[in-house]
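Need tokens for this chain, all 217 residues.
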Amino acid sequence: MNCRKITLKNNTSNVQVYRYQECSDLIIINESEIRPNQIKTIWPITGTFSSAAIDSLTIIEDVVFPLTPVPTRTTTPTPKQTLGLTQTPTNTITPSITPTITPTPSPTYSLGVFNTYSTDVVEFSGLTFVNTSYNTTFGSFPLLSGQYLYGDVIPNSGVEIYAGITDDLSSNYQIEVYQNGSLITTSTPGPGTGTFYVTGPITINSGDNIKIYLTDF
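Here are the structure tokens for all 217 residues:
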């Protein structure tokens, strides 16, 4: 399964919509909005991105994500045969296979921002898990619109989640939390800057997928 990183811009004065299938959790996103002059980055499975207004959208970047090198294989056959009074055939085949593959991140949790206006200054500045811990494996803070951060959480019960928010324009926003693709809570701490309680206590099992989104509200 190939995934892509697509950055697009709405050059019209109207809100446009598009659909795609999310690479990280296979969720199908229908009628996702992009506002006039807004720039968004998405990570779809190859071939799933489409829009009825495709001519109104500028594709700024469209690359394979993540890049996966092609494995190289080296085969060195060395047959040797000596004929004389005594025939002694010697056949030596030495195959050497050296694949180099970059694995796709398989997160226990992911943190992302989407559907934010291009003029807003609202971003994730940090993340805290109470009664457990996590290691960041892809991305970093602060987290801007269209960016994602992946990591691994140690499974535990009674887990509470707090999110640090930077909100310079005091805009209204909300935080959505999904566990294994299902929405488990929506909080509206905005407007304002600070560290806000998101959800808890919840139980995170081994292999669970936790996604936390920041959206305009």
